[in-house]
Amino acid sequence: MARVTTGGHRAAFDPLKHSQPLGGALAFLGLARCIPMLHGAQGCSAFAKALLTRHFREPIPLQSSAINDVSAVLGSSESLLGALDTINERQRPDIIGVLTTGLTEVTEEDMFGVLGASKYAPGSRGPLVVAVSTPDFHGGLSDGWSAALRGIVAAVPATGVTVPGRAAVLVGPTLTAVDIDEIADLVRAFGLDPVVVPDLSGSLDGHLAANWSPVTTGGTTLDALLGLAGCEVVVAVGSAAATAAGELAVKAGAPLIAHDHLSGLAVTDLLVTDLIRHTGATAPEAVRRWRRRLADGLMDSHFVLGGAKVALALEPDQLVAVGSLFYDVGAEIVTAVSPTNADVLRQAPWEEVVVGDFVDLAERAAAAGAELVVASSHGADAAAEAGAAHLTMGFPVYDRMGAQLRATSGYRGSLHLLVDAANRLLEHRESHRPSRHPAAAAPTGAAAAERLEQDEHLEELAC
Predict the structure, then answer these.
(1) C-alpha–C-alpha distance, residues 369 and 386, integer Å
(2) Is residue 320 included in any domain, yes or no?
(3) How many helices (H) and strands (E) does the chain have?
(4) Residue 206 in contact with residue 404, Cβ under 8 Å?
(5) For 73-88, what is each residue's pLDDT tens digit?
(6) Which range marks the domain in which residue 227 is found?
(7) What is the pTM (predicted TM-score) of this model?
(8) Quick one: which of 156, 176, 218, 422 is 20 to 30 A from 308 by CA?
């Protein structure tokens, strides 16, 4: 059990934290034919859209109610409803996610009351409008994702009918597209039909769509969402999805299988055991084979990562997931920095987690002699200051390709993460190793002539 402390600075100089509206928007981007809309000033959505576009390298359908100084004072209900009308008439989405910002939260505008008295009230014809409170002056990306997921689950009607084999799989914000595919395949291997919510593996996986679309192309469809309460089991991966998954399990009258993360052998074994107990099926050979590969990979990577000093700066779920896997293989977690406080941080197997920023990461990593820094692209300076290797992970990643195609979960994803980390550390150690033969630098003058004569002699011997 780790203790959670705060950094030594009263202000964030190099922030690690992202806002709740950004996290909420990211969750809605995992729904098919959806447009998230930030209810606030135009700049609120512009910054979020820039980060999302750089990370995913895809066009991001994100809109704004574009509140100005006048509507902020006199009331923004007309801006809200006008923006919804424009989106509905021009883009024709199936789902619109409405997220508050600091501006609308501070003015205490009753967004839910305005929507409830309009043509966008729950149960009305037209697109499904899901409103979520996400103040950007409180919490962070994971909190916004969790709030949006709870709003989505609240919009799911209770059917009273269970569809045999249907499994609702609710996931957290730190899983990549390949992670989601891996988890869905694992659930599918036991004869279940997984419905992933939100499903970024279908919408922001880097696929090339046939035509440009103003709404998301891929993800959890509206029909699948409306039938979610008919599931026979609910699976939650990530603490940010746990609350929503519990509420869905109550609504569906279904058992809940919840795990904070799936990075590592033991935690993936627990999910497999839960699925075996629920379905009565045995683990398929393909699952067993990847388990054996991970077991072997843990032993192999131990010779590289064992004893290595690792510094982490990630979202809470991912921080615990990645750190636990490295801890299992024998690495020393010398510092772990989270942007926000969360209960899952206390489940970390090392001593301390710091709620802070990249300044805390840089100072602590350098002081502890970290060899490997695991953080987003924003952590490059901290890694350079510590003289450590930088394994780019988290959000945003804009200086590496294929962020959504890197796996970290399940047997296969855990193995890939270990290999990536071990190779990155090996490359760093090799590049910083002093030359074994300093005199073997490119010779000049008489030394060059002597070297040439030796080479010619060796060639004659070889012939």
Answers:
(1) 7
(2) yes
(3) 18, 14
(4) yes
(5) 777 788 899 999 999 9
(6) 166-287
(7) 0.91
(8) 176
